[in-house]
């Protein structure tokens, strides 16, 4: 098992953690990453685009003039797709783009993404991300939105994280609020960890308890549900 330093929110090393190679040291399969991201993006599509067929366009279906003798092209109706204001023949209609991807594939893809961040040394493990214990960014009122966001931003800067995905328990309400308005950071609970967000953000920051929770869910052969 590989060992990684555990840091606090100031960037100081306070311990170490052994990572399970089955989750953090797996083979990085680029095609598998592509498959899972494609599934995630398809699942996220709204599928609400809609256009009118010729039969749905308002107007008469009567032939505008006789077939021959006028010198004009033959025309059957005004609502045809080749006329201005006509309907579209093969235009989009509301549909569901989601499809099924095997759970084993989703879990393997997430192991591959986590292993990629660990291999690139873009994985930071914290003992805890306690926002209320960070140095005040402007006096009292640590729970106020602007100061809370500034505290989280300063903590990420001390950790050397640019665009960062922060993983911590959903009980950490201050961290959720502090990262909400940051364009370069996103908070997720361990059970919401997914391949797309891991690859989207340059650095993965995770607390030690959350890392153990992720390992338990993604270890091969585990009966716990992984990424959904």
Helix fraction bin: 25-40%
Output the CATH class name of the largest domain: Alpha Beta
Instruction: Give the tally of β-strands.
Output: 6
Strand order of the largest sheet: 2-1-3-6-4-5
CATH architecture of the largest domain: 3-Layer(aba) Sandwich
What CATH calls the topology of the largest domain is Ribosomal Protein L4, Chain: A
Beta fraction of the residues? 5-15%
Elements, N to C (H/E): EEHHHEHEHEHEH
Broad shape: elongated
- Average pLDDT score: 89
Measured distance between first and last alpha carbons: 27 Å
Structural class call reads alpha/beta
* Rg, alpha carbons: 27 Å
Could you name the ranges where pLDDT drops below 50 across 5 or more consecutive residues?
A: 224-228
Q: How many separate structural domains?
A: 2
Q: Helical element count?
A: 7
Largest sheet: 6 strands, mixed
Summarize the structure in words.
A hairpin with a 5-residue loop joins strand 1 and strand 2 (13-19). The chain has helices at residues 21-24, 30-44, 103-119, 145-158, 173-180, 195-200, 208-218, and strands at residues 2-7, 13-19, 123-126, 164-167, 185-188, 203-207. The protein folds into 2 domains: 2-45 and 98-218, Ribosomal Protein L4, Chain: A (3-Layer(aba) Sandwich); 48-96, no CATH class. Helix content is 33%, strand content 13%. A 6-stranded mixed beta sheet has the order 2-1-3-6-4-5. Helix 2 crosses helix 3 (103-119) and helix 4 packs across helix 5. Mean pLDDT is 89; it is low at 224-228. The protein is an alpha/beta fold. It has 7 helices and 6 strands; from the N terminus they run E-E-H-H-H-E-H-E-H-E-H-E-H.
